[in-house]
Amino acid sequence: MKAFIFPGQGSQYVGMNEKIPDFNIKKTMFDKASEILGFDLYNVCNNGPMDKLTSTEVAQPAIFTVSLIYNALLAEKNIKPDVVAGHSLGEYSALVAANVLSFEDGLKLVKKRGILMKEASQNNPGKMLAVVGLSEDKLRNVLNKAKNYGIVVTANINTLEQVVLSGELNAIYEAQKIAKEEGAKIAKVLEVSAAFHSPLMEPVVEEMSKFIDKVEFKNPEIPIVQNVTGTVPGSVMEIKDNLKRQLTGPVKWVNSVLNIQKMGVNHFIEVGPKNVLKSMVEKIVKDTKIEAVEGLINA
User: How many structural domains are present in the chain?
Assistant: First the structure.
């Protein structure tokens, strides 16, 4: 069995469209995306500049579009998934791959999500911190101490060793200091523009929830494993609810990958730019084939 996994924000890079073969579907989908977004997405992906491509309201639709062009090209090669999942933003790509959302509706949701998140981060700045190599007890200690300096929570459980914390600036910088004192192998503040998957995104929830409720969601044609539960939802209503909860809730990536493996999957393909998820999955499961689409599609 095969699983497609779709990356989230942070996988963008200038020139990420160049590795996509020049088939008609590439131009069609970039043109469609540019029309919905109101700017030339192909040009930004191709030429940057990087600070623009990294901006939340640009990065999210860019990664979403590139990922789904790859998904369409794999389908043309008759390479199709039995299960899908996405990391954070990537969950929207996975929903399109499972035919829950159309590409157009998915992109409109991602566009709205990016704009609202940018506004929230401007009103209440925050950061994210990657921590590698601490036990659960030591990580709990980091959080408990850092909370004296502001809001800080666990945002992503990426591998058995790596978690990402998210929160207010002072709390994140204090957490970095404490994590190093506790013996973390890595305690690195990430180059992201907001404190995603934390209470700092609470201002996004009401408007994004209304937007989600207006869009047509269909029953998935294949199972999708969602971030906030790490499991397969039982209904369209649950899919929507999980998307809303994901805005402020954690990405349980380890649970997601382990549950996908339990479903009988022995082949993971990361469908999107870079190979961030491939590296994560390699640290979670063994004796499993794991590929990144950028290499696979050009093989």
Answer: 2
